Amino acid sequence: MNNYIRISITVILLALSSLLIKSKGQDLVVKTNLPYLLTTTPNIGVEYAFARNFSFELTGGYNPFKFGEDARLKHWVVWPELRYWTYESLNGHFFGFHGVGGGFNVGGWDLGINKLSKLKDKRVQGSAYGVGISYGYAWIIENRWTIEFTAGVGVARIEYDTYSVSTGAKDGMGKKNYYGPTKGAVSIVYTIR
Questions:
Q1: Considering 50, 72, 158, 177, which has the largest number of Cβ atoms within 10 A of its Cβ?
Q2: What's the pLDDT tens digit per position in 4-13?
Q3: pLDDT digits (tens, 9 = 90+) for 40-74
Q4: What is the CATH number of the domain that holds 109?
Q5: Phi and psi (nearest 5°) for 119?
Q6: pTM of the complete model
Q7: Residue 39: how many other CB atoms lie within 10 Å
């Protein structure tokens, strides 16, 4: 079994087992990542504070849309994350350890960026999974409302097939290790309880 998968499963199991520990005060929130919405991707996250300085977040996004004849940005992604808060859960600075996994079907875009210029004539379909560390800050702006900023870096394994946009025929495949940003969000957060 791949090390990325082992680490992700361990984080998820630790976080799920922590749900048995009761916390006091505000401990359950729902959120959405505003910049991610601008990519036409509906997304939602739920975070549960299970101790004074620890919480578990599970966020996901899904974009089923096709833009015109050939342009696609179809994808889904989930981010489980275990967070340590320096002051108290869901308030102030935090550090996190997250997993990331998803699938994609992207192509037919003329982005004018050298490295992404192949997406004009190609469609790339595959999956990615990885782990990373993050830092963030949650700023309470009203009784139940918070704005949260998050940035994370890590490593991911990407496996994909490529297809010609004009013919639809498969013309390649590949696997890559990715090192760099694995999480980024500016979220509006609503406290449920």
A1: 72
A2: 556 656 655 5
A3: 999 999 999 999 899 999 999 999 987 777 788 89
A4: 2.40.160
A5: -70, -10
A6: 0.81
A7: 13
